[in-house]
Amino acid sequence: MIEVNNLQKVYENGFEALKSVNFSIEKGDLVCLLGPSGCGKSTILNLIAGLLTPSAGDIKFAGESIVKTEPKDRNIGFVFQNYALYPHMSVEQNVMFPLTVGNKKVPKEQARAAADKFMRLTNIEDLKDKKPGTLSGGQQQRVAITRALVQNPQVLLLDEPLSNLDARLRLRIREEIRRLVKEVGITTIFVTHDQEEALSISDKIILLNEGVIQQNDDPQNLYLEPANLFVAQFIGNPIINILPMRLEKGVFHHDNIAIPQERFVTERFKAEVKDGNYFLGIRPEDVLPVDGIGAFAAVIDGVELIGRERILKFDLGIEHMKAIVSVEDAIEEGANLNFDLAYHKAFLFDESGKRVY
Ligand SMILES: Nc1ncnc2c1ncn2[C@@H]1O[C@H](COP(=O)(O)OP(=O)(O)O)[C@@H](O)[C@H]1O
Ligand SMILES: [Mg+2]
Fold first, then answer.
1. Which domains are present in the chain?
2. Which ligand is nearest to the CA of 36?
3. CB contact at 8 A, 49 and 71
4. Which atom of ligand 1 is nearest to the CA of 39?
5. Which of 183, 114, 189 is nearest to 147 (CA)?
6. Minimum-distance ligand to the CA of 82?
């Protein structure tokens, strides 16, 4: 449905916000553009919407280039972080508005019928006579999304639509958005910097950094099979443990730890790895307290209780590490524990951050 080919954006000041971005999105999919602030997410949305012109590259909808099409003719629904509703209009008038002006203009009764239909879908029909100023943030964002959908766009673009909402409401509205766009069947691009939000609602995630796609994949693959060190560190909370290690004659060394390389041998580890410096990545749930002698011993210097989990903090040389155990494992600060690693779950990255295995 959407194809982006070699898309580049250099702003007037010479800053290259997008290097050469390529991706495609299937019809009806909900795809998240994810990445840290400033990585180019809004730039991509604005290029798709026609609010910006690409410096190079092409964007196609259903096989046809749209870069020369006027923004108003691209048939896009756009929702921003700030709801941008008309304060003097009622909710219903706000929702109807796109159908009362410009090339989407239809007779008033038809506009009202379309507005009513979508207000029922988004559960705001009870609010239709209210003014936006009297609504909560969550309600205002529902109105903005309804107004975008009423135009029956072929693509829905959402730029950090939940950032102004409190945490609990964010959880609820993101589920509503997923349900809604699936019900309507609309191809949707959802921009967020929140990896957990992206993991929870997406069919696919495109993770960007500094204007370059790092990985475009199913949500679980970003977690289970990160393409590089950046992806491994961006996805997952608590963040993955990264240990600089030196491989010498088949043994990984860090501080006073030595782990024979053959422990890591798995299905996916087939690469011949040369001696040298690497980063070992191991997620906190794969750092396991053991009774016998493990890979290393450490003194716990902090314990954080998070619902059903207990996060253990400790230092390994100068590296801060975390392990997750069940809240029922009564481990307290000061405990001296032996740890082992779930070696088959470990990742190895070379000095440039490229995944080796
Ligand atoms: N009009 C502009 N002129 C120059 N640089 C810009 C302009 N707009 C955005 N940028 C820069 O481009 C980069 C990407 O911006 P943006 O796409 O807004 O990032 P994101 O939405 O991922 O936070 C940022 O470094 C930002 O400072
Ligand atoms: Mg942005």
1. 2-234 (3.40.50.300), 241-350 (2.40.50.140)
2. 1
3. yes
4. 22
5. 114
6. 2
